Amino acid sequence: MAAELSPEKLSETHRPTLDQALDAIRTRAYWSPHPEHPKAYGEGGPAGSLGAAEGKAAFDAVLNTRLDLGQPGTDGWTGGEVSPYGPKLGVEYPHADPDVLLPAMIAAMGGWRAAGPETRALVCLEILARISARTHELAHAVMHTSGQAFVMAFQAGGPHAQDRGLEAVAYAYAEQTRTPHTADWSKPQGKRDPLRLHKTYHAVGRGVSLLIGCNTFPTWNGYPGLFASLATGNPVLVKPHPRAVLPLALTVQLAREVLAEAGFDPNLVALAAERPGEGIAKTLALRPEIKIIDYTGSTAFGDWLEANARQAQVYTEKAGVNTIVIDSTDDYRGMLSNLAFSLSLYSGQMCTTPQNLLIPRDGVPTDTGHKTYEDVVTDIAGAMTGLLDDDARANGLLGALVNPDVRARLDQAAGLGEVALPSRQVAHPDFPEAVVRTPVLIKLDGTDPDGGSACLSECFGPVSFAVAVESTTAALDLLRRTIREQGAMTVGAYTTSPEVERAVEDVCFDESAQLSLNLTGGVYVNQTAAFSDFHGSGGNPAANAALCDGAFVSNRFRVVEVRRQA
Amino acid sequence: MAAELSPEKLSETHRPTLDQALDAIRTRAYWSPHPEHPKAYGEGGPAGSLGAAEGKAAFDAVLNTRLDLGQPGTDGWTGGEVSPYGPKLGVEYPHADPDVLLPAMIAAMGGWRAAGPETRALVCLEILARISARTHELAHAVMHTSGQAFVMAFQAGGPHAQDRGLEAVAYAYAEQTRTPHTADWSKPQGKRDPLRLHKTYHAVGRGVSLLIGCNTFPTWNGYPGLFASLATGNPVLVKPHPRAVLPLALTVQLAREVLAEAGFDPNLVALAAERPGEGIAKTLALRPEIKIIDYTGSTAFGDWLEANARQAQVYTEKAGVNTIVIDSTDDYRGMLSNLAFSLSLYSGQMCTTPQNLLIPRDGVPTDTGHKTYEDVVTDIAGAMTGLLDDDARANGLLGALVNPDVRARLDQAAGLGEVALPSRQVAHPDFPEAVVRTPVLIKLDGTDPDGGSACLSECFGPVSFAVAVESTTAALDLLRRTIREQGAMTVGAYTTSPEVERAVEDVCFDESAQLSLNLTGGVYVNQTAAFSDFHGSGGNPAANAALCDGAFVSNRFRVVEVRRQA
After folding, report:
1. Secondary structure element (H or E) that encloses residue B196, with its range
2. A130, A262, B1, B27: which sits with the fewest CB atoms below 10 Å from its CB?
3. pLDDT grade, residue A1 (50/70/90)?
4. Do A549 and B559 touch (CB under 8 A)?
C-alpha cells in the first residue's frame, strides 16, 4: 500500500471532515467543505486544486482522446458525445465485456469488506477530494454534456454534487457503525453461571452496484448512489447516459486512481460506456451479479427496473409534476421574482422545477392589493421577461436545451393552451449552435376537465402552466391528486393564512412531498442543500428514495454476526 | 384523553425502558425487561400481571366465546381453530369488510402522525406492558395454536416476542429522531446577508401496514413488523394464520384498548380474520391502501408478495436450509448434546433449526479421539435418544406437530435415505390427541449427486440429514451453494482450526448468513436474543429483512420537510 494513502494518513486528512459531515446530518444546519465560488480554486484554494485556466486546459486536453481506464474486459472503444453548445467532444471510452468485468469487480470485494466502514469512508473522502480539486475541469465536462450554463455546471456539478456524495458517505458510515464491531453478551442464569457469548458484527456489501446516470445532472444525481454503495462495501459499475459520459468517466478515473494508491483493487469502480443504441442498461440491470441499482430518468424505465430487476435493490428518481399553490402573499414582488428565477433556471430542465402554478380564478390578496388571475399571470410573465431580457444574463441562467426532445416539447407546448409568455431564442456569443430558449408560460383552465388536463402529466423542460382554479381548496385538491398520481419532487405555496399553511402541510404529509413555503428571497424551490434538505421524499411516484436518509443506505449492506461461546 | 395515559404519565412510566432499549441496540449486550420465568408473573411480578392460575383462567374464559373487538366494517364472525393438542378453541372473531375497515384505519393516521415519534413509541411500550402482564394467558394461546410445549410457548411467545417488539420500537424511534424536528439553516453570502431558512422535519407513515402471521410463532414473528409499523406512524391490519388467530387477536384487543385510553383512534390496529379457504391475504396484499407488508411463511407466497404487491414495502421471512459444518471439536460431548437439543426443540419446527449436518466421510478429530462419519452419526443419534428418552422431558421439549403437513413430511422422510434414528410417537399425559413425535435423522451421501439432493431443499419439521461429504472444503462448497440457492436463517460450525473458522466466515460473509461457532453449552444455534442477535440477514433467499436493524424500519416512514424563509 502506498505510504501516502495509508489508513493513518487518510484518517489524519479526512477524519475531521467525516466528523463534521456526521454532525451536519444530525443538526441539518448549513455546512459544506466544498467552496462554491470558481475563484476559490487553484492557488490558495483546496490542496492541488486546478484554477480556472488550468481546469479549462485540462478539459481541452481530454477532448479528442481515448480515455483508457485500464479496465479488464475492454473489448473496444466507443464515444460520440456532442455538446448541447455545439462542439463534438471526441472522447473515446472503453467498452466492457461484462462477462470479464463483473467477475473482476466481485473479486475486489473481499479486501474492501475487510477494510471496514471507517477506511472505506476515508477512501471515499479522498476520492471526493480529488474530484473537488478538479472541479473546474469537471464543470466544463458537465456544461458540455448537460447544457447547463458554466456557473451552474460549476456549482451544481461540482461542490453541490460533491456535498451530496459526502452526505451519502456520512450516512453509510453512520449506518454501518450503529452496530458495534464486537459485543460480549452475558445472560444471567440465576444461581448457575451466566451464558456467555463473544460476538462480532460485520457489514457486508451485497454485490455489484449499477449506477445508471442521467443526462442533465450526471454528477449531482450520480454521486449519492455511487458513494453510498462504495462506502457500504459494494463495487460500483457506472453506466453513464450516452450523452453525458465524460463527467462520470473522469470520476471513475479518479476513483480508480485513489483505490489503487490506497492498496485496493481499482476494479471496485468501473465504467460501462455503451455503443450507440446498444441499450446496455437493460441487459446489465438483469445480470445476477447486480444487487443494487441507482437510476435517474424516465418513469417508464424506472418502473421497468423496479418491476424486473428483482434480484437488486432499486433506487429510482423518475418523472414528477411539481406544483406551486398561490393563495395570498405579503411580498408580491418577492414572490414574482422568486418564481421567475425558479421557472427559468437551466430552462426548467430540473426535476425540481415547478410546472403547475395553481391560481384561484378570482385572484389573490397581496401586499400590493388584490390581484386577479390575469394580473398574476401577467406579472409572472413580466418578471420572467425582465429577468431574461438581457441576453448575457439569460445565457448565464438558462443554459442550452439538453437534447432535441426538450426542444420538441417546447415547440409543441404552445398548442396546449393560451400562451401567456412565448419562448424566445437567445443567441449565445460563444456557441452559435447552442439552442438557448426562454421558458414558455401557458394558461390552462383547471376548472374545465379537458382544459386542465395538460397539467396532469410531466412536460419536462421550459414549459410551465398557470392553472386557473376555483379556489384555494380546489388548488389543494388538485395538488393532492397531482402528487398521488404523478408524483412530485417539490411543492411550493404562498399564503399569509395559517389555516391554508396547515392545509397545504397536511396534503404534503398525506402524500409525502417536500414543501417550501413563501420563498421570496434568494432560496428557490428547485434547490436543495445537502446535509440539510431532502431531495424528494421517496414516498410518492416521483422517486422511491430520498437523498439522503437512512433508507437510502441501510439496505445496501447487511450485517453478518459471528458468535462464539466465550 | 384519559388522565392515566397522558403523554406525561406514559413518559414517566416508559421513557426509562425506551432509553435502556436504545442503549441495548447500540451495545448489543444482554438486556431484557421481560422476565423469562413463569413464576415471575402475578403477585410481586410486573404491575397488574396475571399469575399462572389467573392466566390459565383468563385463557379458559375466552374459549368458546365471540371476541368482539368493536371494529368498523364487521360483516360476520369466523373461527374454527383446533389446538395441535386436540381441543377445539371455539373462539369467534370479527370478519371485516375491507372497504369499510381500511378507510377507517386511514382516517386514524392524522392524529397518530401528529403525536410524533416519542409519544408513538411510548404508546407502543404501554401496549407491550399490557401484553407482558398477560403473558400466562398468551402462553396458553400460543401453545394451543402453534403446538409449542408450554414453557417454550411462554418464553418464545411471551418475553422473547415482547423483546423483539420492543427492539423494533427502539429502532423505529432512533430512526425517526436521527433527523431533528427543526433546524435553522443559514448560508453565508460573503458581504451580503446570509440566506436563512427555518426548517421542520416530519416523520410520516406510508399507509396501512399488513401483518400476515404465521402458524408456528404468531407473536415472535409478528410483533417486530407490527410494532415497527405502528411506531413509525402506520395503522396495522393483522391477518393471522387461520390456525393461529387467538394470540394475535388478543394482541389486537390490547392494542386497541391502549390506543383508545391514550386518546388515539383504536382503528390504528385491527384484525382481519378470514373464513375457511377465503385466502384474504392475497386480496388484501394488492389493495392500494396497503403500503407495507410483513410476512412469515412459505417461499412460494413470499415470492408472490414480493413480485406482485408492488405498491407496498414487503418484508418477508421464507423457507431456508440451515447447515452445520462439523470439521473438528475439542468438546465432542458438548457438541453432541448441543446439537441434540437444537434438532429436538419444538420438533425442529423452527425456521432456525439445523437441517443438514455436513460431516467429512473420513471423520473428524475430537478431544476423545478420531471419530468416523458413522461414529458421529451414531453419537448424535445417541445423544438425541438420551435427551428424549423420558416422555415427560420429551413432551416438554418437542411440543406437538403444528399441522398435518409436518406429520406427512416426517412420515415420508424415511424414504429419503438410510434412517440413522427413527422417529417415535410420544404419549402426552394431558392431551391424548396430540401428535408428539421425536425427530428423524437420515443419512445422505453428499458425494453422490443423487444421494445428496434431498438436503438441497427445505424439509420443514423434525427431519435432519447427516450428510457425508468428501472433506471440509467440500462441506464449505455445499454450504455456499445451499445458502445461495436455498437461503439460510442460521449456519453453525464446529472446528478447532483457525483457518477453517476463517473459511466458514468468508462463506457466510460472501453469502450473507448468520454464523454460530463451536456452540457446546446452553446457547443453541436456533435461538437468537433480541437487542443483540440478528434473526436472519436479509441478504440471502431465506429472508429479505433481518430482525431488527435500520433497514427493517427506515423505509416504513418518510421524512417530509417544510421550509420557510426565516
Report:
1. strand B192-205
2. B1
3. very low
4. yes
CA distance A231 to A558: 13
CB pairs under 8 A between A and B: 184
Min distance A222 CA to chain B CA atoms (Å):
21
Q: Compute φ and ψ for A154, nearest 5 degrees.
A: -65, -50
- Give the closest of B179, B204, B549 to A28, CB-based: B179
Q: Is the ipTM of this complex over 0.90?
A: yes
Which residue among B26, B201, B522 places its CB closest to the CB of A195? B522
Q: Do A189 and B522 touch (CB under 8 A)?
A: yes
Q: Which of B30, B484, B540 to mutate to test the interface with A (most CBs of A within 10 A)?
A: B30
* Short-list A216, A207, A204, A194, CA closest to A235: A207
Residue of B nearest to A288 (CA): B484
Q: What is the mean pLDDT of residues B417-433?
A: 96
Cα–Cα distance measured from residue A543 to residue A356, given in angstroms and rounded to the nearest whole number: 19
Name every chain A residue with its beta carbon within 8 A of the beta carbon of B513.
Answer: 560
d(CA B138, CA B294): 21
pLDDT surpassing 50 at residue B1: no
Q: What is the pLDDT of residue B47?
A: 85
A204 with B513: Cβ contact below 8 A = no
**A512 and B539: CB-CB below 8 Å?**
no
Q: Is residue A229 predicted with pLDDT exceeding 70?
A: yes
Query: Which of A407, A532, A228 lies closest to B200 in space, CA to CA?
Result: A532
What chain B holds in terms of domains, given with CATH numbers, is: 3-183+196-318+546-565 (3.40.605.10), 323-517 (3.40.309.10)
On the question of a cis peptide bond just before residue B548, with omega within 30 degrees of 0, the verdict is yes
Structure-block grid coordinates of residue B412: 415420508
**Are residues A560 and B187, on separate chains, in Cβ contact within 8 Å?**
no
Distances (CA, A) of B517 to B490, B522, B532, B543, B551: 11, 13, 16, 22, 26
Q: Rounded CA gap, B361 and B471, in Å? A: 7
Measured CA to CA, the distance from residue B356 to residue B324 in angstroms comes to 6
Contacts of B106 in chain A (CB under 8 A): none
Q: How sure is the predictor about A81, in pLDDT bands with cuts at 50, 70 and 90?
A: very high
Distance from CA of A470 to the nearest CA of B (A): 26
Q: Tens digits of per-residue pLDDT, B90-111?
A: 999 999 999 999 999 999 999 9
Share of residues in chain B with pLDDT > 70 (%): 99
A551/B555 touch (CB, cutoff 8 Å), yes or no: yes
pTM: 0.97
Cell representation of residue A140: 466544463
Question: Residue for cell digits 473496444?
Answer: A76
Could you say which of B175, B202, B521 has the minimum Cβ distance to residue A565? B521
Preceding peptide of B351 cis, ω within 30°: no
Cell of A297: 430518468
Distance CA B256, CA B236 (A): 11
Is residue A504 within 8 A of residue B546, CB to CB? The reply is no
Helix (H), strand (E) at residue A445: strand A440-445
The residue behind cell 405579503 is A330
Looking up cell 402529466, which residue turns up?
A457
CA distance B263 to B256: 11
